Amino acid sequence: MAASATPAGKPRQPSISQLRGFAAVAEQLHFRDAAAAIGMSQPALSGAVAALEEALGVQLLERTTRKVLLSPAGERLAIRARRVLEAVGELLEEAEAARAPFTGVLRLGVIPTVAPYLLPTVLRLVHDRYPRLDFQVHEEQTASLLDGLAHGRLDLLLLAVPLGAPGVVEMPLFDEDFVLVTPRDHWLGGRDDIPREALKQLDLLLLDEGHCLRDQALDICREAGRTEGAPMTTSAAGLSTLVQLVAGGLGVTLLPRTALRVETARNDHLATGDFADPAPARRIALARRAGAARTEEFEAFAEALREALRPLPVRVAGRSA
């Protein structure tokens, strides 16, 4: 058979239909049986195999009046054809899975001052409502999370806002108040009307640089009129250590209310106090890339998470917040 080639001298691209027809004939070694197996008419099947031979420039079959045999080239290419068809099948399966919401991988980035307190609720929601979702969690500081979102390493972020990051859409979940955590015998312990101005001269313990909670606490202090020279210690990488320092009498700190039960419930050397209204607060949100392919899915996830968070001591945001 003469080779049929492109202007560059290379075989033409075969079609999936041609490969499917050839693979069926190679398996059945009979045109009628092969046509029945793939639901194609016998003339159409014969034409597809002939077109494949012409496109590749290779004789694949030896035809006789009674039987069909694979040529040496046909035996080799039949193996390749089956692999191509298997790969196409996998591609179609993956596309079907991608069309179905809440399937496949969802990579969530979470800041350290949220992860221990909200993840139990998040994971329970995913387990109960989205069992087919391959849910992966990455705990990192805000700057690293935003970088991961921008470069596609992460799909969603759970963190404090506002971010002011271009190309990032915030989906607010809730607002929560800050609580003052003090040593047990501190004069502000147990009060429910602490004025913000009390923060002006307190020995305040903060998280290390890079934590957004540190920046939020500093903003609250500045709003309260705290001067740059007021006593302030930075000596903790996490909230648990920060609380232990407070219990040891080294100062006071600010905790978001969702962290209060986990961090203070078992320590009788601590006291807490609530601020007078309006209390200082932070907003927690999910964040996604603007124009993300899974925007509708992420919006639905945010709404489901708002409902799941209602039992917590927070003020849940509305859908249009």
UniProtKB/TrEMBL annotation:
Task: Write down the Pfam families for this protein, in alphabetical order.
Answer: HTH_1, LysR_substrate
Q: Which InterPro entries match?
A: LysR_HTH_N, LysR_subst-bd, WH-like_DNA-bd_sf, WH_DNA-bd_sf
Which stretches make up the HTH lysR-type domain?
A: 14-71
Query: So which domain of life are we looking at?
Result: Bacteria
CDD domains in UniProt? PBP2_OxyR
Q: Which UniProt keywords apply?
A: Activator, DNA-binding, Transcription, Transcription regulation
Could you cite one Gene Ontology molecular function of this protein? DNA-binding transcription factor activity
Provide one Gene Ontology cellular component.
Answer: protein-DNA complex
The family this protein is said to belong to: Belongs to the LysR transcriptional regulatory family.
Q: What's the name of the protein?
A: Probable hydrogen peroxide-inducible genes activator
> What organism does the UniProt record list as the source?
Streptomyces malaysiensis subsp. samsunensis
